[in-house]
Write a structure and sequence with these properties.
The complex is a heterodimer of chains A (340) and B (84). By secondary structure, chain A is an alpha+beta fold. Chain A has helices at residues 13-24, 29-32, 34-41, 91-102, 118-123, 196-204, 250-263, 278-284, and strands spanning 3-9, 42-43, 46-54, 57-66, 75-82, 108-113, 127-130, 132-137, 150-151, 169-172, 190-191, 212-218, 221-232, 235-245, 268-274, 287-288, 296-297, 313-316, 324-325, 327-328. Helix content of chain B is 54%, strand content 0%. Classes of the chains: A alpha+beta (340), B mainly alpha (84).
C-alpha cells in the first residue's frame, strides 16, 4: 500500500500525540497535553502538520508554525519525524516538501535543528548555522554563590562601560492591547516578520511559561523584548527569549536587563540568538559564550536542568537582498516545556 | 552510455561502497540502494554532498523527490542531466 500525505485535522490530534510518544520522545509534554499541542499547532479545523499515512497508520509528520497572520506568512519548521521502521526512502523530505509546496510562505526557518540534519539542509541549499549564546553575569554575586553557571577562572566581566539612561524608556507591556501601538510593519524586512497576534499568542496567552514583554523606546528607535525567569532549585536565570525592533535599542536593553537581573536575584541573563551584531551586543553588555570551551558554563536546559553548554542550531532559507535574518530562542517551536 | 555518465556512475559506486563499507565491485548500479541496506535517507544526503563536491555538479532541490535517487544508475542520470 502506498503512502499518502495530507494536512492534519483536529481529529488527528490523538494519533499525533501517540506517534510522538512512541517515535519521537516518550513522555514529552506535547504527547501528553492535548491542550498545549492544539494551542501551538491548531488553526481553525486544521492542525498544522503534514502527516504521512500507510493504510491507517501514521508513519511520519512535519509540523509548522506561522509567524504572522498575513496571507503569505513567514514559516517555522517544527517537529519532523518518520518512524524508524518506515522503508519509504526520503519520506521525511517528501513531508517537508508537501508543506513547502502547499503552505504559501515568504521565508522558511527553523530553530532547534538537530546536528544530524546538517547534510539534509545543505543538499537543499538552505543555510545551517550555530546560534550564539550571549550572557551577562550578575556582578553583585560572589563566584562561589553561582549554582547554575560555572567558571573555572575569574568571573568573566562584560565590557559595558556605562549604563544607558536618560533618553530611553523601558517599560513592561502589561496588556496585549498595547501592542496595537507598536509599529510591527516598520520591520517588514526582518525575517521572520512577526505581528501583534504572534506576540499575543506566543507570549501573553502562553498557557505554561510566564513571559514578560517589555517595550523600549528612545531617539528614533523602539523595540520589544521578552524575558522569563528559569528556575532550578532556589537559583534562577533571566532569559531573554525574543527581541524584535530597532537594534539601536540594544544597549538600553542591556542596562534594563542588568537591573531586572539584580531585582530578581538571577545569576545571569542570557540570549540564544542568531544574526544580532556583535558590536551592539557587546555595547549592551553581553559576552558571547564559547560553546567549544567548558571553562565557562552557561546552562541552556532547565527541564531537566543540565549544567553544561548546549549548542543550538538553526536553518533558514537564503536571505534576499535588503532583508535581515534574526533568530531568537523562542522562535518556532522552541522555548517550550519538555515535561509537565 | 556516454563516457561522462560512466565516470559519474563509477564515482557514485565508490561513494556508496564507502558508505556501505563494501568494495565498489559489490555495488550494482541498478540495485535499490535503500532496499539493499547500503544507505539510509540521511546517508543519501551525505553522499550527495560528497558527490556534488567530487563531481562539481549541484543537483536542484527537486531532484531529491525524483524516484531515480534510489539507484546509482538513476543518480548518475540526475547528475548527468544537470551537467548538460
Amino acid at each position: 500500500m502506498s503512502i499518502s500525505i495530507r494536512f492534519g485535522r483536529i481529529e488527528d490530534t490523538e494519533a499525533i500525540m501517540q506517534f510522538m510518544d512512541r517515535h519521537w520522545r516518550r513522555g514529552h509534554i506535547l504527547s501528553r497535553c492535548r491542550d498545549l499541542l492544539l494551542y501551538e499547532f491548531a488553526e481553525r479545523e486544521r492542525i498544522n502538520f503534514a502527516l504521512a499515512w500507510r493504510n491507517d497508520r501514521l508513519v511520519g509528520l512535519f509540523g509548522f508554525i506561522k509567524y504572522n497572520r498575513r496571507p503569505i506568512p513567514d514559516l517555522a519548521g517544527s517537529l519532523w519525524k518518520v518512524t524508524e521502521t518506515e522503508k519509504s526512502p526520503l519520506l521525511g523530505m517528501k513531508l517537508r516538501q508537501f508543506v513547502i509546496d502547499n503552505v504559501p510562505h515568504r521565508f522558511f526557518s527553523a530553530p532547534g535543528a538537530g546536528p544530524q540534519t546538517k547534510p539534509i539542509y545543505q543538499v537543499i541549499g538552505m543555510n545551517w548555522a550555530r546560534m550564539s549564546h550571549w550572557f551577562m553575569l550578575n556582578q553583585e554575586m560572589d563566584k562561589l554563590d553561582f549554582r547554575l553557571a560555572k567558571f573555572d577562572g575569574d568571573l568573566p566581566i562584560s565590557q559595558k562601560k556605562e549604563s544607558v539612561v536618560g533618553r530611553w524608556s523601558v517599560r513592561k507591556v502589561e496588556d496585549d492591547k498595547e501592542l496595537k501601538r507598536f509599529p510591527f510593519e516598520k520591520f517588514d524586512n526582518t525575517l521572520p516578520f512577526k505581528d501583534a497576534e504572534y506576540v499575543r499568542h506566543r507570549f501573553f496567552n502562553y498557557p505554561i511559561y510566564d513571559y514578560q514583554v517589555w517595550h523600549v523606546q528612545g531617539g528614533h528607535g523602539q523595540a520589544l523584548y521578552v524575558t522569563r525567569l528559569a528556575n532550578h532549585g532556589d537559583a534562577c536565570a533571566l532569559r531573554m527569549v525574543d527581541y524584535y525592533g530597532d537594534e539601536e535599542c540594544l544597549p538600553a536593553v542591556g542596562t534594563a536587563l542588568h537591573q531586572q537581573m539584580r531585582n530578581s536575584c538571577a545569576e545571569y541573563v542570557d540570549f540564544v540568538s542568531f544574526g544580532f551584531p556583535q558590536a551592539l551586543m557587546s555595547e549592551a553588555g553581553f559576552l558571547e559564550l564559547d560553546l567549544d570551551d567548558e571553562s565557562i558554563i552557561i546552562p541552556n536546559y532547565f527541564e531537566p536542568f543540565e549544567r553544561r553548554n548546549v549548542p543550538v542550531y538553526c536553518v533558514f532559507d537564503p536571505v534576499p537582498n535588503g532583508f535581515e535574518f534574526r533568530m531568537c530562542k523562542a522562535d518556532g517551536d522552541q522555548d517550550r516545556p519538555n515535561s509537565k | 552510455m556516454g563516457r561522462d555518465k560512466m565516470n559519474i556512475e563509477r564515482e557514485l559506486c565508490k561513494l556508496v561502497a564507502k558508505a556501505a563499507n563494501l568494495p565498489p565491485t559489490e555495488i550494482d548500479p541498478k540495485d535499490n540502494i535503500f532496499e539493499e541496506g547500503w544507505i539510509d535517507s540521511l546517508g543519501l544526503y551525505r553522499l550527495l554532498l560528497e558527490a556534488e563536491r567530487e563531481l562539481g555538479i549541484k543537483l536542484p532541490e527537486g531532484a531529491l523527490l525524483d524516484n531515480r535517487v534510489s539507484t546509482v544508475a538513476g543518480l548518475a542520470d540526475l547528475f548527468q542531466q544537470e551537467k548538460e
